[in-house]
Amino acid sequence: MKVLKMTKKSLEKNQCFIKIFYPLLSFPLVFLEFTVLTGNGIFLFTYSTAKYSMWSFLPRYLYLQFSKGANAFFLFITILQQIPDVSPMGKYTTLLPLMITLIISGIREIVEDYVSLLLVKSQNYCLEKRRTCWFFFSPRLLVNVGDIVKASNGQFLPADMVLISSSEPQVTCYVATSNLDGETNLKIRQALLATAEMQTEKQLSSLSGKIECEGPNLHFSTFTGSLHLNGESPVPIGPDQVLLRGTQLKNTQWVLGIVVYTGFETKFMQNSIKLPLKRSNVEKVTNVQILVLFWLLLAMSLVSYSSYEIWISRWYLSSFYLNFGFDLLVFIILYHNLIPISLLVTLEIVKYVQAMFINWDEDMHYKGNNVYAMARTSNLNEELGQVKYLFSDKTGTLTCNIMTFKKLFLLPYSVENSCFHLNKLISLYLLQNVYEFLIT
To answer: Is the model's pTM score more than 0.85?
Structure first.
C-alpha cells in the first residue's frame, strides 16, 4: 500500500491528516488514497429530510397529487370539458375547484416541509473547527476530512470522527445514539491516550500524522484503524474511540476529534435509504371507494345513453351508434359530481388542524423536559393507535420507560383505567376467540 508523504513545509502550512482506506475481508473495497489539504477548496455537503426542493416541488407535488384517484378523475373531467360541444356545464366548472384544491394542499405541503427543513438546519450548525492554529465557528456542511472539530455539550456531531481529547478527567465522553439505534441510554467513548493531553491550540498546531482506517460501511458497532503520529508507533483505533455523525454529546463540556468520514461516507448516511411514499389507511380506502363510484358513474352513463337512444327512437338510422362516444362523455360530465371534489380538500384541512391539536395537547406534554408531542406530518394522523401487537423487552429496567395505561379498545369493547374492567374485558375477548376457533 502506497502512502502519500507530506513535506514538513506543507504540514506546517495545512496542519492536516492523511486518510487512507484499506480493504478488509468483511468490507471488500477498492484502494482509495488521497491527501487532505485543508486550505485548498471546500467540500460542500448537507443533508435534508425535506420531501421537496425548490426545483423538484412542482413536478413531484403534481405527481403525488394526481396519483390520488379523485384528483386524477377530476383532471380527466377537466380535460373533457375543454372539448368543444362536449361539456354542457362550461369549460371551467371543474378546473377552478380542482385548482383551489391543489393550491390548499400545496400550501399545507410547503408549510410542513419548511418546518422539517428548519429542524434539519438547526442541526447543520457546528461547531468549532481548527484551520492552521485557531478555531472558528463553521456550519456542518463545511467540515472536511482531516479537520479537528470541537463540539460542545448538547450538540449533534457533524461527521464521523476519532476522539482525541475531552474536558473530562478520564478523557471520556457520553453520547446519545437514539438517532442511530433508537436506544435512549448513553454510550461512553474513550479518547486515545496518545492524544489525551492535546487540548490547547498550541498543542494541536503541532499535531501531524496520518490515519489508516477501513472503508465506508454501514456497521455502527465496528471500526478498525490506526493513528500514526510522526515519530511515534501506531495507535490502534476501535469503535470506542469513534464518535458517529448523528449522535448527540451529553454530560460532557466539550470534545475534540479528527474527522475521518464526511457526507455520504458517514455510517449515518450509509444506513439511510430512500423512504417510500407513505399513504394512510384512510387514503387507501378513499381511493378504493372513489374507484367504485367511478364504475357506478360509468354504469349510470351507459344506462342513461341507452335510455336516451330508446327515447328518441333512432333505430331506423343505420349510423345511430356513431355518436355513442360523444353522448357517453356528455353523460359522464353530467354525473361527475357523484364523486365530491370537496372530499379531498376537506380531508387536507381536517388533518392539518388535527396535527395542530396534537402539538398543543397537554395530555402528551412531558413537564420534566417541557417537551410536547410533535406531528411531523399530518398525512398519517389516523394511523395513531392502530396497534396490533405490543412487544416489551428488559431495556426498560435501565432506561426507565414509563408507559401509562389510558384506554384500550378491543372491538366491540372499550375500557379505561380500571384493572377490574380490564381483566374482565380481556377474559371476554379471549373466550370469544376460543369460541370462534372451536366452531371453525
So the answer is: no
